[in-house]
Amino acid sequence: MWPRPPTIDALIAGKILGTPKQGTGKNGSPYTTAAIQATAGNGEGMICNVIAFRESARAALDAMGDGDSVAASGALTPKVWTNREGQTRQGLDLVCHAVLTSYHVNRKRRAMVLSTDDDLDADL
Q1: For the domain with range 8-123, which CATH number is right: 2.40.50.140, 3.30.70.2190, 3.40.50.720, 2.120.10.10?
Q2: DSSP count for the chain of H helices, then E strands
């Protein structure tokens, strides 16, 4: 039996490839899968296969479409395989716990500005 590959607590950022897909596991639990095109340190793209079980992460992925910017965090497992042409390929699998989109960033920024404005009013 092969040793279990290591998992890494990770944050992956990139763009959604295609449309996220919903499914139901054998135990009846819903999930969403997606592919994220991330850029590696050498500038080359790498595909990260994402699966989300948490309702908040599923809802965020379900609202996204092809080309949308996204950051996802969770348990990352690196993969290496050989394709049909005999070339070694690398990939990533992520069990997603949380998703951050530009919508979330804008909402948090607005909340911070409103909070700062309230602090300024209190000082007067």
Answers
A1: 2.40.50.140
A2: 2, 5
